[in-house]
Specification:
Blueprint (H helix, E strand, L loop, with lengths): L28 H21 L7 H10 L2 H13 L7
């Protein structure tokens, strides 16, 4: 992935992701996808600037809470293969 991997999940209790007004309805599919993109964009930007990727952990935690594991695995494979449809 773009020179860096997302952080590994932390052990311990994770709070429920807060309400995001961009996704007001019950279907959280777009929320999941957008946070996945935001996490990878954040990591790419921070690595380019030579800074810590710790601020990107928020997006990582949100998409790991909302997204099915199978989706995340498929998206990571697509990124690795260069076939991912999202703009990172």
């Amino acid at each position: 992935m773009l020179g860096a991997e997302c952080p590994k999940p932390c052990k311990g209790k994770w709070p429920t992701p807060p309400f995001d007004p961009r996704f007001p309805n019950q279907n959280q599919t777009r929320n999941c996808y957008q946070n996945f993109l935001d996490c990878h964009r954040c990591i790419k930007t921070m690595n380019r600037r030579g800074k810590s990727t710790q601020p990107c952990e928020y997006y990582f935690r949100v998409y790991h809470s909302l997204c099915p594991i199978s989706w995340v695995q498929r998206w990571k494979e697509q990124i690795k293969d260069g076939t991912f449809a999202g703009k990172i």
